[in-house]
Specification:
The chain is of the alpha/beta class. The chain is built from 3 helices and 12 strands, in the order αβαββββββββαβββ. The strands form 3 sheets. The chain has an 8-stranded mixed beta sheet. Strands 4-5 form a two-stranded antiparallel ribbon.
Length: 165
């Protein structure tokens, strides 16, 4: 299924990408591993910077930390691997965000693990930032508890197709 996700991702009409904000998947929870997509984007966009989330639990803020193949990650108290570095990139510089999710709906809203870190962070990104969800499952008709602070996806990629919102 990951190969199908990559094939569908390659169909997106993307221009040159300078900065990707990705995530470390929780494989034990069957989250999609976005590494193949990140590697594809690196091939297509020489010099691509890849950032990963780091949470400051004192103020519930998320940061995007630029990483490379030698970067060190440690698990936080949620069990999510985060970069040890503090090489933060401004959210306005991010071109595309790959988003983990549990479910998404036909309007492009996603459900994650309920902490709201991504929605708060995405509001800081520039208007043209592309938000791409990755899911093994098709959308539900409607997420009933979507709020005004929720940020919709531009695309969601499944093994079956690309959803455009």
């Amino acid at each position: 299924m990951d190969d199908l996700l990559l094939i569908h991702f390659q169909k997106l009409p993307l221009s040159f990408i300078s900065v990707l904000f990705s995530f470390q998947s929780l494989l034990e929870l069957n989250e999609i591993d976005p590494l193949a997509i990140a590697r594809f984007l690196q091939f297509q966009n020489p010099g691509l910077l890849i950032a990963y989330p780091k949470i400051n639990f004192a103020d519930s803020a998320m940061q995007a930390i630029v990483c490379n193949d030698e970067s060190i990650f440690e698990k936080n108290h949620f069990g999510i691997a985060e970069p040890v570095s503090d090489d933060e990139i401004d959210p306005k510089q991010i071109d595309i965000v790959l988003l983990p999710l549990l479910a998404f709906d036909e309007k492009g809203f996603r459900v994650g693990y309920g902490k709201g870190f991504y929605d708060a962070y995405l509001k800081q990104c520039r208007d043209g930032c592309i938000k791409v969800g990755l899911s093994y499952f098709e959308p539900v008709p409607l997420i009933e508890d979507a709020n005004d602070f929720d940020v919709p996806l531009n695309y969601c990629i499944t093994p079956q197709k690309v959803y455009v919102f």
